[in-house]
């Protein structure tokens, strides 16, 4: 700790740290930094608050937490040897296996204790170790909050309030000398339970049934219920103080007796070493990289397919936000994936900033303008963008379909899906996979066991099959999502993922690029009105082909089918029949089949003969016979058509409905503008206003950077100097009346001005009390450099900067003792 005398308080222990250790405390517990404490006393007080201590305990690994739990049941203060004995036992039942475990505990305890000290949960020298009082209260046993160690209260705590007569009866039954002094009686009983030889002799006389009762209570919980007329074994234990009454129907096994039965150990199974992550299969690393690269390309294609499907405006948003169950099912069908996987892809696109709601009154989801930029990137860079967004996102797709705290269903893209622990868990899972040899897949249960050791939940089961806690569920989702995204291949971490974790997206994209298939500039047209793309297509070719034909099947090769509707869609987008013939001839490795040419010419010949405009809407056609045919068709009745002229009909529905109705009747109408020009419908024109990707929800205060830590340490040091520095009184002697945090000097205005002016001439430092414009009082150490116009300009050691103070706001000044000058 850097001191020659043992600290008396936590504040003294923190004050004795060097700057590096103090910065380490603030880095490990960033909540202590908001706002920056004024001095060490304030820092120590904040470090002992319940909320801060709970947060610090939840970030300990299992052995550090077990060490803290052992200190919570140890005497306060406890020497290092007592703490070690609580973890290793008294050696009475040691075998070879226990000896090895005790050696591991002995080796690991200094590191665990150093962690607790660095985080200000334990303070004091090794001969007087103290657990912070709040941590002791959180971890100490009580009927309402049993200790994680399974130990009950001490004999002194359990007998508090017990009548002297009852204590004498217990002493007599235990074969001890009776005393009328309750304190002596408790001490005698405690001495009996901590004496191994005498305690063993007492238990040798116990009935076998009584020992069975103790076996059920020894490892906790130590409380049991008794009837008004307990059984003889329970009565035997109660009469000798081995079970002490807590209430009329509850008894407890005192801590000292339990420790004897446990051979002095506070924990049944101390875990000084983290469990190893084990591999279950070894594969060729190159095969793993190829598999992961193929899945990465599929991930990019799936996100692109999803957003292309929503190009004209995606599904409507629920009033409470998110997708309805029906829309999620429709999306899953369109992507040909299960619903949980469809939820993952939509959440990934949203987290990457490629998808958002349009913010309109009739709110719908659609691609963002950022999607157009993303779509122009090479495939490897698109994957790196998705993978980076997934690593940092706090939105957790695995929760979709569950319920929130109020029992409401959680929907994809809806609220309440943020879990601040998700990014840290994802990175930690991938880091554990990275510890294995390349090509090795990890056993998921060993990954979960390691995560629970690194961040145990207080009071939770540590069994390997317990996956009820959120971190375990996120870890399992991480493993499955990694496979979907191409982070892993067959459970093994890919080389480009290792680069992503170590070097960043650019290096990962560079390693992934050679493994991705090259885009093709051709397709194979077939006589059955289909086209086969034997691989990924170049973007212009893929865009136009997806407009001209419908995707029939996907996989290693994509099959497109040409239909009248798909050809009409291309004509609506501004293409002509000659353009389509030229496009197919230029990009097909096989001759254009005659049926396909006939299909294009037939649809193009009929396309645009009917013109739709706004009247509410109208139909016009140069061929009167066509209009007569429409009017005679019973299917046109819902359109409520009437003839305006030989070549024009009026309808009572909007132009879009009229277009759809006539197309269902088998016609190929075209929409026109107010000037009579054909309206061209371009795919992919629906975009949201510019949107930023959702900001991850941080898990507690952010970890401060080095610059902030350095400034905070200097500010706390200076504030502590101002609070504890020695001052002179008016006669020049050290002033013992104005010391201690919170006390402000009091001098008259004339004395203040004279002292400050003298300090300017001598260059000495002063201690001042100052009240700002908001009425907040503080004490500071300053070095005045100028006094004029009712203001003093000085270098403020507390803030480490030059400041100007109004003289009327200075409550008083005092000179510093010579050995206290900053």
Annotation, overall tally of beta strands:
27
Shape: elongated
Strand order across the largest sheet: 18-19-17-16-20
Total of DSSP H or I helical runs spanning 4+ residues: 33
State which percent range the strand residues make up.
Answer: 5-15%
Average pLDDT confidence is: 85
Described by strand count, sense and barrel closure, the largest sheet is: 5 strands, mixed
Query: If you compute it from the alpha carbons, what radius of gyration comes out, rounded to the nearest whole angstrom?
Result: 39 Å
Classification by helices and strands = alpha+beta
Q: Portion of residues in helices?
A: 40-55%
Low-pLDDT sequence parts: 459-467, 736-742
Distance between the termini: 22 Å
Summary tags:
822 residues, five-stranded mixed β-sheet, alpha+beta, 27 strands
SSE order and pairing:
Elements lengths: L9 H6 L3 H10 L11 H8 L2 H9 L3 H12 L6 H9 L7 H23 L3 E2 L6 E2 L1 H7 L15 H4 L5 H10 L8 H13 L1 H9 L3 H10 L5 E3 L6 H8 L4 E2 L4 E3 L2 H7 L17 E4 L2 H25 L15 H11 L3 H13 L3 E3 L7 E3 L1 H7 L3 H14 L29 H13 L5 E3 L1 H11 L15 H16 L2 E2 L2 E2 L1 H8 L2 H8 L11 E3 L3 E4 L5 H10 L1 E4 L4 E4 L2 H9 L4 H11 L6 H13 L4 E3 L3 E4 L3 H9 L9 E4 L2 E4 L3 H10 L5 E2 L34 H19 L2 E2 L5 E2 L13 H14 L3 E6 L5 E12 L2 E6 L4 E6 L3 E6 L7
Parallel strand pairs: 16-20
Antiparallel strand pairs: 1-2, 3-5, 4-5, 6-9, 7-8, 10-11, 12-13, 13-15, 14-15, 16-17, 17-19, 18-19, 21-22, 23-24, 23-27, 24-25, 25-26
Helix pairs in contact: 2-32, 5-7, 5-8, 10-11, 13-14, 16-18, 16-20, 17-18, 20-25, 21-23, 22-23, 24-25, 27-29
């Amino acid at each position: 700790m850097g001191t020659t005398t043992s600290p008396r308080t936590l504040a003294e222990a923190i004050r004795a740290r060097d700057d590096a250790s103090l910065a380490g405390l603030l880095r490990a517990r960033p909540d202590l930094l908001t706002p920056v404490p004024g001095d060490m006393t304030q820092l120590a007080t904040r470090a002992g608050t319940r909320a801060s201590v709970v947060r610090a305990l939840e970030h300990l690994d299992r052995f550090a937490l077990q060490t803290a739990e052992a200190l919570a049941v140890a005497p306060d203060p406890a020497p290092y040897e007592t703490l070690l004995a609580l973890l290793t036992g008294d050696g009475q039942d040691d075998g070879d296996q226990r000896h090895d475990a005790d050696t591991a505990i002995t080796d690991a305890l200094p590191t665990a204790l150093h962690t607790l000290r660095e985080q200000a949960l334990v303070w004091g020298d090794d001969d007087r170790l103290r657990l912070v009082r709040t941590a002791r209260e959180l971890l100490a046993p009580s009927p309402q909050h049993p200790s994680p160690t399974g130990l009950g209260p001490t004999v002194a705590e359990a007998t508090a309030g017990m009548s002297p007569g009852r204590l004498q009866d217990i002493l007599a039954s235990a074969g001890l000398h009776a005393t009328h002094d309750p304190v002596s009686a408790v001490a005698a009983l405690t001495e009996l339970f901590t004496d191994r030889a005498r305690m063993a002799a007492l238990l040798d006389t116990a009935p076998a049934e009584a020992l069975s009762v103790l076996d059920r209570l020894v490892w906790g919980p130590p409380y049991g219920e008794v009837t008004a007329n307990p059984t003889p074994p329970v009565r035997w234990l109660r009469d000798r103080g081995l079970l002490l009454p807590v209430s009329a129907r509850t008894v407890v096994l005192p801590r000292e007796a339990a420790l004897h039965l446990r051979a002095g150990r506070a924990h049944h199974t101390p875990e000084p070493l983290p469990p190893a992550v084990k591999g279950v299969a070894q594969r060729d690393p190159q095969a793993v990289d190829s598999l992961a690269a193929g899945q990465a390309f599929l991930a990019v294609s799936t996100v692109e397919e999803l957003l292309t499907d929503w190009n004209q405006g995606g599904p409507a948003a629920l009033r409470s936000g998110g997708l309805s169950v029906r829309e999620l099912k429709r999306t899953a069908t369109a992507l040909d994936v299960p619903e949980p996987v469809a939820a993952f892809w939509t959440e990934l696109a949203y987290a990457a900033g490629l998808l958002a709601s349009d913010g309109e009154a009739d709110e719908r989801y659609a691609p963002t303008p950022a999607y157009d930029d993303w779509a122009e990137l090479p495939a490897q860079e698109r994957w790196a963008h998705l993978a980076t967004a997934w690593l940092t996102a706090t939105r957790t797709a695995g929760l979709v379909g569950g319920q929130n705290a109020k029992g409401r269903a959680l929907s994809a893209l809806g609220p309440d899906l943020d879990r601040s622990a998700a990014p840290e868990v994802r990175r930690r899972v991938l880091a554990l996979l990275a510890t294995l040899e390349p090509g090795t897949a990890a056993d998921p249960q060993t990954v979960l066991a390691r995560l629970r050791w690194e961040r145990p939940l207080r009071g939770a089961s540590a069994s390997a099959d317990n996956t009820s806690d959120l971190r375990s569920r996120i870890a399992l989702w991480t493993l499955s999502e990694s496979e979907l995204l191409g982070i892993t291949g067959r459970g093994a971490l890919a080389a480009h993922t290792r680069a992503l974790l170590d070097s960043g997206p650019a290096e990962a994209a560079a390693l992934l690029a050679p493994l991705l298939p090259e885009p093709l500039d051709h397709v194979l047209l077939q006589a059955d009105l289909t086209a086969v793309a034997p691989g990924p297509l170049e973007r212009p070719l893929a865009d136009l082909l997806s407009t001209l034909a419908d995707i029939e099947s996907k996989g290693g090769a994509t099959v497109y089918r040409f239909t009248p509707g798909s050809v009409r869609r291309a004509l609506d987008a501004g293409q002509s029949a000659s353009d389509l013939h030229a496009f197919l001839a230029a990009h097909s490795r096989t001759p254009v089949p005659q049926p396909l040419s006939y299909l294009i010419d037939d649809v193009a010949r009929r396309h645009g003969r009917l013109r739709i405009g706004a009247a509410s809407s109208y139909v016009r056609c140069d061929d009167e016979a066509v209009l007569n045919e429409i009017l005679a068709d019973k299917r046109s009745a819902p359109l409520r058509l009437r003839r305006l002229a030989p070549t024009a009909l009026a309808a009572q529905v909007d132009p879009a409905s009229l277009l759809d109705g006539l197309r269902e009747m088998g016609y190929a109408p075209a929409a026109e503008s107010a000037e009579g020009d054909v309206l061209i419908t371009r795919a992919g024109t629906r975009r949201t206003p510019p949107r930023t990707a959702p900001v991850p929800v941080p898990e507690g205060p952010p970890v401060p950077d080095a610059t902030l830590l350095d400034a905070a340490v200097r500010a706390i040091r200076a504030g502590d100097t101002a609070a504890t520095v020695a001052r002179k009184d008016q006669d020049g002697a050290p002033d013992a009346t104005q010391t201690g945090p919170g006390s402000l000097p009091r001098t008259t205005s004339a004395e203040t001005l004279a002292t400050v002016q003298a300090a300017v001439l001598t260059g000495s430092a002063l201690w001042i009390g100052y009240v700002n414009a908001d009425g907040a009082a503080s004490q500071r150490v300053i070095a005045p450099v100028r006094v004029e116009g009712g203001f003093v300009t000085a270098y403020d050691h507390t803030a480490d900067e030059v400041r100007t103070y109004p003289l009327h706001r200075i409550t008083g000044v005092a000179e510093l003792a010579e050995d206290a000058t900053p």
